[in-house]
Amino acid sequence: MKQPAIQHGHGLRRLLAFIGAVLALGVLTATAVAQGRNLLKNPGFEGDFKIQCSFPGGRPWQPVECDGPLPSMPWQSIMVAPDWVAWWQPPSSDRSARDFYQNFPNYCGRSAPDDCVAWHQPEFRDTRAAGQDPPRIRSGENSQKYFTFWSVHQGGVYQVVEGLRPGTPLRFSIYMMAWSATKDSGGEPNPHQSFGQTNMQMKIGIDPMGGLDPWSPDIVWSPEKESYDAFGLYEVQAVARSTKVTVFTHSRPENPMEHNDVYLDDAALTLVGGIGPSDPLTVNPPPALQAVGAVTTTAADGRQVTHVIRPGDTLFALALQYGVPVDQIMALNGLTAESQVQIGRELIIALAVPQVKPQPVAGPTPIVSVGGPSGSGRGTVCVQAFDDADADGRWLVAEAPVASSGVRLIVTDAQGETVADRVIGEDAPDNCVADLPATTYRVVAEPPAGYAATMPARWAIALPGDTRIDLPLGVRAAPIEPASSPWPMVIVIAVGVLVAGGLGLGVARRRRA
Predict the structure, then answer these.
(1) Which one of 107, 146, 151, 453 is CB 3.0 to 4.6 Å from 120, fit for a cystine?
(2) What is the domain range of residue 227?
(3) Residue 126 predicted with pLDDT over 60
(4) Strand ranges (DSSP E) for 398-505?
């Protein structure tokens, strides 16, 4: 009588296993769909473009509803894709002002200085109504265009993305193309080929605070690069410091060509690591660099600190929340750049304070601390050398600091651009790099002359705003090999000369005989 029950149990297990496999496949499929989720609205600049309106007397790039309750001024030459906003440097039209020619003049008259360049407000239009020879649309049925004639401009478009979690690492990308040309031998310029322009200053940026000021120092900008007559990919990364961020495009041609056109298409804002806010946490720190000697921050009572993964968590957010390095969380939980951590898993953030071992000094070891002007949104990175007597890569109480003068400090950002590369001087503040935007960085420290490093002195850090990160550099005095005396070599050379001279003399005597 029990045999059928056992068979029935096996069948039930198979059924449950099959259901589990289907559910797992669904989860994997959902995760795969969520990977690379674009947080932007209308990233392809599709649809019917709309006239942009602003409050009379206000900043033209801070729009209001054209048919809203507030009075508005429509910009008939500004037509942008839905969910996007145009911004530009307003030219000066007050020709009676003394500084007219030094303040973005919209006209260069006879009395203008020789280097006067006329500034105009760009016109913003769609491209689907124009002929596509050459093509100005990368994908879909439309793209954004803005341009000026016989003048220069500074402008672009932006979009605000809300509903984020502070500490979320983000990547903004977009395809941009410029066509800048003027008449050639009296004829119209070739629409397929730019010529004559020296620099369009094309770049993109992220304001991690979600501001609307295109000139804000908070914006993290990509490097400038030119992309004439073909769409080029532009990318930049930053860490959100608010529940919203703003993405910007930028161009500023140097020469007032007949045509200074810019085209935009296929934008994307994604979480670094390619996951959505409710998907499993993908461990994706900055480029893999080993952080040695990380201090283990603990709870006030010295107990172990843990965290249960919730939807929206990222390693960067956890590092900012608990004030510990990203590498420490990875090391304590055996994570790599390819690891995935399911929601509900408990991560170790910091170990309990040991009671018998020597304690690391509460000083410049990798720890995030509050510092700098509150609300500045900028951060500071410092390096301090110490005499690592036992060469264990930890700064113990008995180990004294070493003057950091002579240490070479190199800091690069997430785009690989060098932020600082200098040799630290005598003054203490010189061992810090201050006023850094909140994003990810790579830091390399090289020991001063006469010292050897006792630890791999490379770190990958996520720098929050209004904070200071202190990094240790364990060093020991390098043994100086005594210089070899030149006398033995001199003696060998002298002996060789005498022997050669003796042989030559003997040969000469034989010839005479």
Answers:
(1) 151
(2) 50-184+195-271
(3) yes
(4) 408-413, 418-423, 432-437, 440-446, 451-453, 458-462, 467-477
Domain count, the chain: 2
Contact 382, 431 (CB under 8 A): yes
Tell me which range, 81-95, 307-321, 483-497, is most confidently predicted by mean pLDDT.
Answer: 81-95
Angle between helices 315-322 and 326-333 (to 10 degrees): 110
365 with 295: CB under 8 angstroms?
A: yes
pLDDT exceeds cutoff 60 at 34: no
Decide: 462 and 169 in contact? Cβ < 8 Å.
yes
Together in a domain, 301 and 262: no
* Residue pair 419/434 in contact by the 8 Å Cβ criterion: no
CATH of the domain at 454: 2.60.40.10
CB-based burial of residue 131 (10 Å sphere; 0-12 exposed, 13-18 middle, 19+ buried)?
exposed
Handedness of CA 212, 439, 280, 29 (dihedral sign): positive
CA separation, residue 10 to residues 1, 7, 15, 19, 22 (Å): 15, 5, 9, 14, 18
**Average pLDDT of the chain to the nearest whole number:** 76
Please determine, for residue 127, whether its predicted confidence score (pLDDT) is greater than 90: yes
Instruction: Check whether residue 172 and residue 116 sit in a common domain.
Output: yes
Residue-wise pLDDT tens digits, 336-382? 766 777 788 888 887 765 443 333 333 334 545 544 445 566 788 88
Put simply, whether the predicted model's pTM sits higher than 0.85 gets the answer no
